[in-house]
Write a structure and sequence with these properties.
17% of the residues lie in helices and 30% in strands. Strand 21 and strand 22 form a beta hairpin. The two termini are 30 Å apart.
Amino acid sequence: MSSSAPQDTGHRLWSVDEHLADVLAAVRPLEPIELQLLDAQGCVLVEDVTVPVALPPFDNSSMDGYAVRTADVQGASEEFPAVLTVIGDVAAGSGELPTVGPGEAARIMTGAPLPPGAEAVVPVEWTDGGTGGGAAAGMTPASAAPEHAGGEVRVHRAAEARAHVRARGSDVQAGDLALAAGTVLGPPQIALLAAIGRGTVRVRPRPRVVVLSTGSELVQPGEALTSGTIYDSNSFALAAAARDAGAIAYRVGAVADDADILRATIEDQLIRADLLVTTGGVSVGAYDVVKEALSSVGSGDETSGDVEGGGIDFRKLAMQPGKPQGFGTIGPDHTPLLALPGNPVSSYVSFELFVRPAIRTLMGLPEPEVRRPSVRAVLTADKALGSPAGRRQFLRGKYDAESGTVSPVGGSGSHLIAALAQADSLMVVPEDVTSVEPGTELEVVLLG
């Protein structure tokens, strides 16, 4: 949404689903860019990537041992070993390869190309390692004993054709689809791209999310508390949650309860924001600075480069915690802004329900991956859980996947951050339910 003037739609209660739909309607996936592989980690691929060359690109050894002809080791045993002439070494990366003829073998290392004439690889443990003794435990380093690249080797076991040989194209063939558009690039996908020779890839970039907390009572962790002050935890929690969702997060130190300072801070941050998140100052108090600061947004010149140019709606949602919310766009580029309540649990729950889906929509993820997964679980509790009529309640829970049960953690207070740290899920109590008895099946949103 992008309204031409700010609104306070607090005269009615919005449902959670209505508010989320409004947020997602205003968010569009970011434009694709070409990035170096490591910079593309966590990003969504926007094109199909095909394999230009087969992997592996040549037949190669899966063991350290000897490249041999199968006829030369047929019937070999410890009592009657096959004695072969060692004609040299084949190391990984070798260019010019020796040709293995009748009665010959080449020392070969894992990953080295199979030399011409060879049909199989016998592991070094099946031989005497060229020492003339018993079974070898490993190869003598070439730098320490170069003479072992020559002489003779005794092979104690036969080998079938292609034994311990990784065939060309056994991983992927040239022309195969390596990765499909829409794939999120994690370490294995980055590895595959590098293996097929891609140095860059076209992706939607990770969204840049700026998190601002408000409140003159907030002190940065590490500083001394004075009378009436508390540590700023919200900005840390939400910046960490933004990173967890896949964004690049910028945390701004707490802004005092001053509308002019907040407006100036937001203006300064717009240059590096694809999404702005504020926490605190959205209720009905005399010092609810976010509401005050953004009350004039939308009345100015949309091309001026200041914070004007969008519209912020402040509304009440039929949910607990997190009833007061604000949402709209701001600045010349109509950057989405979500204003969350200041109580720690309220802000975190609001982030999971509304900000995380917005971030993942900006990333270009498909709908099933935009929201946290949810399951059905049976409530285990000592007594019934109460819930306000007409509100969708989100209670912190501990989910047991093995038993399919969930139990409450802490109370329902929106300030109980210690309980939040112990929870791994949110239990959802529908709007039309005021009491949940133990044994009742609930929807559970998984946070891990």
